Amino acid sequence: MNQPIKGGRGVNALPFVAPSVVILFIWMIVPLVMTLWFSFQRYNLLSPELSGFVGLSNYSFLLTDSSLWIAMANTLLLVGGVLAITIVGGTLLAVLFDQEFFGSKIARLLAIAPFFVMPTVSALIWKNLLMHPVNGVSAAIARALGLQPVDWFGQWPLFSVVVIVAWQWLPFALLILLTALQSLDHEQKEAARMDGAGPLAIFWYIVLPHMGRAIKVVVMIETIFFLSIFAEIYVTTGGGPGLASTNLTYLIYLRALLEYDIGTASAGGVIAIVLANIVAAFLVRSIARNLDA
Question: Which residues form the ABC transmembrane type-1 domain (predicted)?
Answer without folding.
Answer: 72-283
